[in-house]
Amino acid sequence: MDLKIFTLYENQQNLFHRIPMSKQPKITKMVRVLNWKSMTLFILFLCFIFLLVIGILEGDTDLIRLESSSL
Amino acid sequence: MTGLHRDRVIPTEIEGQKVKNAHSKKRYAFLRKFRWIPIVGIGGILANSYYKVIFTKTIYEGPLKAGCVPFLNCHACPFAISSCPIGILQHFAAIRKLPLLLMGFLGIIGVTVGRAACGWLCPFGWIQDKMYRIRSKKFRIPKPLTKLKYVSLIVLAILLPTFTGAHWFSRICPWGTIIAGIPWVVWNPVDPSFGEPVIEPGMVGWLYGLKIAVLIGFLVLFVVTKRPFCRTTCPLGAIYSLFNRFSLLQMHVEKQDSCTTCRLCKEVCPVDIKISDDPGSAECIRCLECTTCKHVRVKWGFGHDG
Does residue A68 share a domain with residue A57? Predict the structure, then answer.
């Protein structure tokens, strides 16, 4: 019985992937996009923005300007 | 149920895909043809547009120098209006401070487009592409040598500046020699604030000779092999290449299993990689030359498989 349910589930999964993205409802699109890889990338992106802002607040711009304004 | 779906959905999908592919191919051809415009316009002219130096005889010191460009562009160049990321990295290593702003800036670029800045903005890479067209005997760079750029990043741009306080990569950077070293020595104007020449006679010594020797060596290599500097020496390329495998912008090979191994992608590739074997290669500069093959296309956004 369990195997039957599993096979049915698997078939449905295959079916689900056959439907083009444009014809899928919005929620399924979101679910497909939100995998571990995209979440990691998004968090990494936010971390770099955070670093950039901290760098500006720490006065990195002044150091860069001083360094690059001399031969 | 499955059969019904196949009949109803798949043919439409294939037809739609064919039309989409045709449009994409035209777009890729257009982008390939005009890739030189951002390189020359932004990387070459815009980043070096301080023409007032002809009268002031001193380099630009304004607010734009507080930021840096996402490609190699020596900030000691007489016309430079912005800083070089590797120059900044070395400076922060020398003063033993974490370059937070630079890390954030390069990270954002890496995560979004990977090494695309090398293919779409860097004028030095473009010069290498052009010089490779000169007729001569050609040879391929062995793959292990491409790892040297990480050594260059760690040793020349981080460790040596940290322990010696000197900018070792800048001392031998061939692009810096072309756009800053040679112009200043040849021009050598009198500094209006001190009333003396900018380059004193003692400043042009053995180190300058070494710079010129490295430059000549690379110029010869540019003719005989594809992008040798980008692939074996560039520390900035090494930084961007760390992001290449998972950046938002990715190359994608359709029907990877049915690749006929015609090697078209490798022949046209400026960094000599076979995109059908490894679409997320650390060497790929996203120049789109490989989209000449109908199986290669660009993928953008979250949720791709790489």
Answer: yes
Inter-chain residue contact B303 with A35, CB threshold 8 Å: yes
Boundaries of domain holding A61: 36-71
Strand blocks (E) in chain B:
190-191, 196-197, 249-253, 296-300
Q: Please list every residue in chain A whose beta carbon sits closer than 8 Å to the beta carbon of residue B83.
A: 64-65, 67-68
Nearest-CB residue to B107 (from A51, A65, A70): A51
Q: Per-residue confidence at B13, pLDDT binned at 50, 70, 90?
A: low
By the 8 A CB rule, do B302 and B248 touch? yes
Q: Parallel, antiparallel, or unpaired: how do β-strands B196-197 and B249-253 relate?
A: unpaired
- B42 burial level (CB within 10 Å; 0-12, 13-18, 19+): middle
Q: Do A60 and A70 fall into the same domain?
A: yes
Pair (A27, A1) in one structural domain: yes
- Residue A15: the pLDDT is 58
The pTM of the whole model exceeds 0.90: no
Encoded amino acid at B12, one letter: T
**Tens digits of residue pLDDT in A15-69:** 556 666 666 666 665 666 667 778 888 899 999 999 999 999 999 999 999 998 8
Are A30 and A41 within one domain?
Answer: no
Specify whether A2 is located in the same domain as A29.
yes
In a shared domain, residues A30 and A47:
no
Q: Are B24 and B299 in contact (CB under 8 A)?
A: no
Q: Give A51's contacts in chain B (Cβ within 8 Å).
A: 100-101, 103-104, 107
Q: What is the DSSP string of A7-36?
A: HHHHHHHHHHHHS-GGGS-HHHHHHHH-SH
Residue B41 has a CB neighbour count (10 Å cut-off) of 12
